DNA sequence: CCTTGACCTTCCAGTCACGGGAAGGCCCAT
DNA sequence: ATGGGCCTTCCCGTGACTGGAAGGTCAAGG
């Protein structure tokens, strides 16, 4: 299987697949012509990576998860640990975004949005008069 | 005022201040020795930038906002437009993170997290059996 | 006067996870 | 043999910085 088929089967761009090989996440075979030859195992791994990335795991976390996946003697606690850290990071990011959103929404609703120059958004950015 | 004082007054790292000069957001004077000499105007702008960045605005948005701030003939509608776009982007990011969080939380709670190898997190990543 | 240490400067490289595009080889059908 | 569509590697660019090296400057103490 060539890279374009691997791409369409996994939904990952060919560029991404080459990158994943470059950083050692997958090791596809090579044909006599130098083309990558993807086996089912590689497709499987790529799909795994795509789903882990969609959950926001970093590439290094993905590497860890893939290693755990391939280790029959793993402890599920190790997997859970990685996932809990990721959950925590998502929660922190959510908190941050919610605060931004609250402040921004308040400013936006205070701004007339007409042709006059007076603007509470700019006033706030200039002096941060309001709370948050 | 030297860069370290500008840094402590604005809360921005000196590196960041130099970067902002490099990309043309601020234009501090220079002393005879080549040191940057920050005036109140520069400090003010840097604080503005720091707050805009804290609301998640991109550097290019910050450039636009700063230009509007310095334009007495601006229309507040223009400011509001930029802010609304930012609000929209935050909302999209929030949605994405909430979905990730929901999936991840479900997987985490399904995982025993003990010494056994069976792990619903890995099973899901491997095959995406669940919904979503 | 000399040294020390804390400033300051510029420049280069690295981050993260790719994406764009060039230059060139390969494959298959006409 | 030619065309078009694959494939390859290689290098640069992204955003918004951060780290660090190499070297100039300044003020205080001996």
What does this structure look like?
With 132 residues, chain A is mainly alpha-helical. Chain A has two domains: 1-57, Multidrug-efflux Transporter Regulator, Chain: A, Domain 2 (Orthogonal Bundle); 75-132. The first copy, chain A, has six helices and two strands; from the N terminus they run ααββαααα. Chain A has a two-stranded antiparallel ribbon with strand order 1-2. In chain A, strand 1 and strand 2 (36-37) form a beta hairpin. In chain A, helix 3 (40-54) crosses helix 4. Chain A is elongated, with a radius of gyration of 23 Å. Chain A starts with a helix and ends in a 5-residue tail after the last helix. The mean pLDDT of chain A is 95. At the A-B interface, helix 3, helix 4, helix 5 and helix 6 of A face helix 3, helix 4, helix 5 and helix 6 of B. Chains A, B: InterPro entries: CueR, DNA-bd_dom_put_sf, MerR-type_HTH_dom, MerR_fam, Tscrpt_reg_MerR_DNA-bd. Chains A, B: Keywords: Coiled coil, Cytoplasm, DNA-binding, Transcription, Transcription regulation. Chains A, B: It holds the Pfam family MerR-DNA-bind. Chains A, B: Its main location: cytoplasm. Chains A, B: It comes from Sedimentitalea arenosa.
Which percent range describes the beta-strand content of chain A? Answer: under 5%
The greatest interface between two protein chains, and residues involved on each side, is:
A-B, 53 and 53 residues
Average of pLDDT of chain A: 95
Our count of domains of chain A comes out at 2
Could you tell me the radius of gyration of chain A in angstroms? 23 Å
What order do the helices and strands of chain A follow?
HHEEHHHH
Strand order of the largest sheet of chain A: 1-2
Name the structural class of chain A.
mainly alpha
Helix content of chain A: 55-70%
Report the total helices of chain A.
6
Shape of chain A: elongated
């Amino acid at each position: 299987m060539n890279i374009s088929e691997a791409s369409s089967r996994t939904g990952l761009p060919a560029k991404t697949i080459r990158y994943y090989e470059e950083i050692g996440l997958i090791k596809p075979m090579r044909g006599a012509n130098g083309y990558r030859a993807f086996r089912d195992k590689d497709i499987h791994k790529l799909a795994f990576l795509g789903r882990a990335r969609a959950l926001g795991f970093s590439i290094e976390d993905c590497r860890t998860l893939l290693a755990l996946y391939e280790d029959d003697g793993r402890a599920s606690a190790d997997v859970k640990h990685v996932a809990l850290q990721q959950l925590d990071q998502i929660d922190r990011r959510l908190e941050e975004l919610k605060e931004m959103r609250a402040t921004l929404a308040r400013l936006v609703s205070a701004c007339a949005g007409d042709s006059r120059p007076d603007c509470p958004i700019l006033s706030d950015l200039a002096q941060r008069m309001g709370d948050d």
